[in-house]
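Teaching note: in complex prediction, the entire set of molecules is handled at once rather than each chain in isolation. The prompt given to students was simply: 'Predict the structure of this complex.' The entities are:
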Amino acid sequence: MQALPGFRDFLPDQCAVRNYIFAGWREIARRYGFVEWEGPPLEATELYKKKSGAEIVEQLFNFTDKGEREVALRPELTPTLARVIAAHEREFKKPLKWFSIGQFFRYEKQQRGRLREHFQLNCDIIGETDLAADIELVALCIDILRAFGFTEKDFVVRISDREFWTDFLRDKKLPAERWDGLLQAIDKSAREPREKTAEKLGDLADPVFATLKSGGESARLKQLVEGLRARGLADFVAIDVGIVRGLAYYTGVVFEVFDRAGKFRAIAGGGRYDNLIAQLSDGAVSMPALGFAMGDVVLGELINEISRAREVMQKALGDHSKIDLYVVIAKEQRRADALAQVQQLRDRGYRIDYPLTPTKVARQFQAAEELGARVALLYGDEWPQVKIKNMGTAEQELVGGDKLLGRLAELL
Ligand code: HAM
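The expected output is the structure of the full assembly:
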C-alpha cells in the first residue's frame, strides 16, 4: 500500500523540516502582532461555490456525508475566515490581524510544487481600508522569507491591482458577467501559449497584450512601493500587472511571490478582498479585508535550492534528533536504580534514552554514539557512584548520587 498520489508521508527528517517551516512562520507572524486562530478542515461545499471561483471548485475534494450534506475538504482558508468574521465580528476590536497554519486539499494534477495536500500559513488583516495595511502585509510576507535566509536576489513579490483590470474592462464596456473569465485568462497568460489566451480574450486580445507589454500605470502601486522603500524593502518587489490571481474574490491590490530564477511555482499569493465578507453574509456584515497564504511545498523546494537558506535550516535543525544523555545499564541488578534516576533527569528536561532490555555494554555505548548523546551515564559495580563518560572527549569520572545533577549541569 502506498500513499495516495499527491499526498506525503512525513518521515522524521521531513517532519523536522515541516516543523522548522511552521516555527519560522509563527515567529515572524507574531513579530508583526498577528494572533493565531484555526477553522475546521471540512466545510459545506457551498462555501467555496459561492465565492472562490470556478478553478478551485473544479479542484475540490468533495463528497456527500452520512447526513446527506454536500461537504468539501478545505482547498483554502479565506472563505472560512470570511464566514467566521461575519459571525464573530462584534467580539473583536478592528483591525484584526489573524494568522493560521493548516493543511489544505486540492485535486490538482500532481506536478513539481503542486500536490493534492499542502500546508499554508495564512495572514489576514480585517477591518482596514488604508493602503498602510497592504504595505504592512507585503512587508510581513517579505520578512518571513528573509527569516528563512533568502535575500532580494532569491525572490520577488510581484504586485498588481485588480482594479487596474476591472477599470480596463469597464472602459471596454464589457458586461460584468464576463469579467471573471477574462481576469482568469489574463492571470494564466504568462503560463499558457499566447494563442490559447488570445482565443479566450477574443476582441480584447490585442489591447490586453499591449497593456501587459507596456506594464500599465498605477498610482496606488507606486505608493505601495514607496511605503516599502521607506522600510528598506523596495528591492524585494516589482510592479507586474500580469498578476491577476486565480481566485474570484480579490478586489484591489494583489500579489504573488516567485523565485528570481523563475524555476518554481508561486511561493505565496494574496491580496485585498473587500467584498467577500459582505457577499458571504448576504450583506449582514461588510468589512474590508486583505491577506495572503504561503505554501510549504515550494518554500521547501526553494530552501533546498538556495545554499544560504539550507545552511540557516541545518543550523536551526542542528541536534533536533539528538539526545542529551544515554544511560548504560552495565549490571542488570542496577536497572531499577538507573530508571529511578532516568525519571528524575527527564523531569528536569534532559532528553534521555536507555536500553529497554538487557544489552551488552559495548552495544549500549554504540547506541549512545548513534543517538548523538553528549554524555553517557554508567550504572554498574561502582553503585551508588555513577560513571560519567563525556562522549566528545572520552573522559570518564565517578560521581556520587548527590553530585550528579550539578556535574551534569556543567557538562550539558
Ligand atoms: P493561493 O494562491 O491559491 O491563495 O495559494 C497560496 C499558496 O499556497 C500558493 O502560492 C502555493 O505556495 C500554495 N499552494 C496552493 N495550492 C497548492 C498545491 N496544490 N500544492 C502545493 N502548494 C499549493 C490562496 O489560497 C488564498 N486563499 C490566499 C489568501 C489568504 N488570500 C487572502 N488571504
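Point out the following to students. The two ends are 43 Å apart (CA to CA). The pocket of histidyl-adenosine monophosphate is lined by residues 76-78, 106, 108, 114-115, 118, 120, 122, 124, 247, 266-270, 291-293, 295, 297-298 (CB under 6 Å).
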